[in-house]
Amino acid sequence: MSHAARLPLYLCLDQGGHASRALILDARGEVVARAMRDVTTQQPADDRVEQNPEEVVASLRQAAREVIATLGARAAEVVSAGLATQRSSLVCWDRQTGRALSPVISWQDRRAHAWLALFEPHAADIERRTGLRLSPHYGASKFRWCLENLEAVRTARHAGRLAIGPLASFLTFSLSDTRPFVVDPANAQRTLLWSIETGDWDASLLDLFGVPGDVLPTSTSTTSDLGTLSINAARVPLTTLTGDQAAALFAFGTPADDTAYLNIGTGAFAQRVVRAPRRASGLLTSCVLRENAGAVYAIEGTVNGAGAALAWAKQELNLPDLEAQLTAWLARDTELPIFLNGIGGLGAPYWEANFPTRFLGEGESWQRALAVVESIVFLLGVNVDRLSSVGSLTNLFVTGGLARHDGLCQRLADLTGLPARRPDEPEATARGLAWLLADRPNWPAPASVEFTPRPNAPLRERYRRWRAEMDSACIT
Questions:
Q1: CA-based end-to-end distance of the chain
Q2: Total domain count for the chain?
């Protein structure tokens, strides 16, 4: 057996908005095997986005079984597992039977935005306690909606069997043999009920939103004993639980303080690491790692309409081959309309739950599709600008599915004036999990492509017009 074959292996489970992925990485951060299962998303109304909880659990199990099976005898070398999930999505379930009592209510869901608006007088205090803006994307209003509208949830509550928590908690409960009822900091914070200062549920916020504390999971650290996953003949300790964006920050080791990390998937996220909670206008303060030795925080901007906006454009503009054509379209030098992107609700730094999506100016369907792409670049650009308010940035680090498009990365560099580095290995969430599971090894710098900023007057002019329209439409 070679030296490489004797390296310990790590199982990284990445549950995202469109798929569940299982990857095996070794102690050098190299992907050994991978498997994926698609997950269906339903949108029963404009402001509702749901998934089937049983389907999500089954997809993770299937992906894990497949990836373990590919290892053959090496399955015995898998020493631990970690799980990263979409933050802000939630599930209600029966603690006795494990049966889901609600759909997975997605982070994109805004069904209770009108009710949440009643708490606007408390917004500043909520932000101070949680690091988050008052937003229907986060859990509190969704928890309350389930308690008030789902009969099965009310029945379980009356019987003392109700569990409500982030998707991460439901998946851990469903997959681990010990059925732990816990939540990590990155996912707990996204409920609007968790104190970023104390690292636990905030009694005053539970009371404010009318969510009973006894139905919520126990708050734990990012790494802990979460039981064992039984996968085929393997028994793998589950030791790390976190959010997808939190994990992605650690994809290539300790994140640098002077770098903006952009992860562009269904949603897009712009983060920079800080060592203590700090505030930046219009942005969030996130807890991305919390253990006995201390915590790591990030200032974060969110873009709800990234991959979700391209999916919207594919249907709205009748472009079934959008993905296949996008790279070629991005290479064209052409004038474009402006797209005001409110897909999924407008996130940072504007925070408008029902912002009207619209094009300004004319163009063919492919030009409008490019305008949608540029809106993602513009939203990330304005968030990077806010991130720089707490200290100068020297570069961008770009990951995620949409980062594969050179034209998008080049536009980010041109717009921000910062070199954008895209690693060759796209699995940021899984690599971040592996780094945590491997006890923070000193990994070498990844092979990457760098996009150097270029003069791009037309892009900057469109951005100026876009900013003017956004600033006039929103109060930030």
A1: 60
A2: 2
